[in-house]
Specification:
mainly beta; 16-stranded antiparallel sheet; 18 strands; 63% strand
Amino acid sequence: TYFDSRGDIMSFQRYIYKGDNIVEFMALDSDEEPEYHQVLAYEGDICTSIITTNYLASDDVPSVEICEYKLDGELVTEYIRKSEDGTVLSRGVYSYPEKNVEEVVDYGAPGEEPEHITRYYNDMGQIVKVISDNTYYEIEYNSSNLPIRFVNVAPYCNTLFAILPKTEEALYYADYRYDARGNWTTQIIYQGNMKRPYRISEREITY
């Protein structure tokens, strides 16, 4: 049980030990209404997997159910969004066939055509390539982990990106100027192989 500074109850947590190393965890609000539900598998004191996680629906926020399991020895995660009456709003299945690779099947709402997405990451967790039914793009980074080359991605708002449709082709480059502390203060975007100046962004940092 959690209390605020006045001693009033803020929330509760309940643990139910189901046997066979399965623990059910539930978080409840001050009225003991459930907000969060999770089923965990343990080996000794170590949690080995999250069987399901449910973020329960409220009046304007859908619930999210997360299931993790092994399929042919490979970790698979499912995200299922549901309305308060239990209607499935969307479903996504994530798998990780190798290091820094994430494969997604986004089923969307029932009746929609699923979209297949493969994302490639660098060791810093930054996306370097995405291949999907609707898009394809690449981003290359420098040693400061700043993006310097964009394929089928239109950079805007400093280092944010607008993903272009697969039918479009675009190439952009970025160059940076840094202050004495190594933080960038000027970003210059060039367009195309000819590197035509496209946009300059500057920022002032107060230390």
